[in-house]
Amino acid sequence: MEYDIKKGNCGNLEGDGLRRLMEAAFGSVTKEGDAYVSSYGAMGRIEVRMKGRTKLDISTVTDKNASPEVAADTIKRWNDFLERATGFTSKERRNRLQKKAKDGKL
Predict the structure, then answer these.
(1) Who contacts 54 (Cβ-Cβ below 8 Å, separation ≥6)?
(2) Across the beta sheet with 43-51, what order do the strands follow?
(3) Predicted confidence (pLDDT) per residue in 48-81, tens digit
(4) Which domain holds residue 8?
(5) What is the domain-level CATH number for residue 25?
(6) Considering its fold, how many domains does the chain have in total?
(7) In which band, very low, low, confident or very high, does the pLDDT at 104 lie, cut at 50, 70 and 90?
(8) Helix or strand holding residue 75 (H, E)
(9) Model confidence over 9-49: pLDDT tens digits?
């Protein structure tokens, strides 16, 4: 899935910024080609790529059998990471996705 990056927030991700954000949120991070890869809680794999200065391409693999406590903690960490990486809150991300879907841009 692609996530827009708020104007001016890309500077936080350049250089080692994206890797450091992922480490702070999920722990250890490895680099595979142009992607940073990690895992945390109910997410067995989190793969993040920069697509220019305006987008992040993120793919995840989740464990549907994770306990409710693990799932809740994972969602909290995930939302915190996305807010720091994109500059948009979960509500703002939702509204942007709804507008794109309405406009037929998804």
Answers:
(1) 4, 5, 10
(2) 2-4, 55-62, 43-51, 35-40, 30-32
(3) 999 988 999 999 999 999 999 999 999 999 999 9
(4) 2-102
(5) 3.30.310.190
(6) 1
(7) confident
(8) helix 68-86
(9) 988 899 899 999 999 999 999 999 999 999 999 999 999 99
Q: What is the distance between the terminal CA atoms of the chain, rounded to a whole angstrom?
A: 10
How high is the pLDDT of residue 68?
Answer: 94
Tokens of 103: 């406009």
The whole-chain average pLDDT of the chain stands at 94
pTM of the model: 0.90
Gap between the Cα atoms of 78 and 46, Å rounded: 10
Instruction: Find, among 71, 62, 74, the residue nearest to 26 by Cα.
Output: 74
Could you identify the residue written with the tokens 């992607």?
Answer: 35
The tokens for 55 are: 């987008």
For residues 22 and 13, is the Cβ–Cβ distance under 8 A?
no
